[in-house]
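Exercise 7.
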Amino acid sequence: MFRHKGKSRRLVHNLKLASLLSFVAGVVNVTGFFSIQILTTNVTGHFAYFADGVVKQDPANALYFLLYILAYLSGAFISNTMAEWAQQFNPRYANALPVFTEILLLTGVALLAPPVIHHFAPEVACILLFAMGLQNAMVTRISNAVVRTTHLTGLFTDLGIELSQLLFYRRPEQQKKLKASVKLRFAIISFFFLGCVTGGIGFTWLDVRILFLAVICLFIGIIYSDIRYRLLLLKKNFSESRLPSRGHR
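Solution. The predicted structure, written as tokens, is:
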């Protein structure tokens, strides 16, 4: 699910990727909100708070929210920069680099003691927003902008449009395409919600250490993707080795 791109990418790859990373984003979202009362998976609301600080002539507060916005932007920028750089030298690691960077960032926050997190709340928020910028840019790049995992506003908009289109576009190929898209969007929304609920329940027991659950999910995803890719290569090589050479009949 992390390797297939372009024509080789199918709905099942996007479903696996969307389910995994939406769950991770849900866990991060609720952990950030419960621990420091800051939303850490998207920046839409931060623009409103930034404008509020500007209008009320509160530059310190406005600056914090500007930093949150820039942290998310920086994560997206660094994610794609790493992927493009790796693509030139070793394409195998193009998508793994952002994932492992996200793992390191989430692990670092999970290891912090609650008093430290509360004291450095803006810095922790920036780290989590940077990690989500990494993730969303990575998944957007892999899926050719079909999958977004860290926020739901656009997903609900697209879902509403496509549910309406199901009533009017009746050709079999149109219905098949629309139903596949609706299925994908339901998967993203459902697993984001599941991540939020799981993260919220886990936070009451483990505090910010519930982020280790997100880290484990990312590790499982990257290992599973690598194993699947290696098995497919072995199968392909085995099939080609059994084909008769052109010089013999």
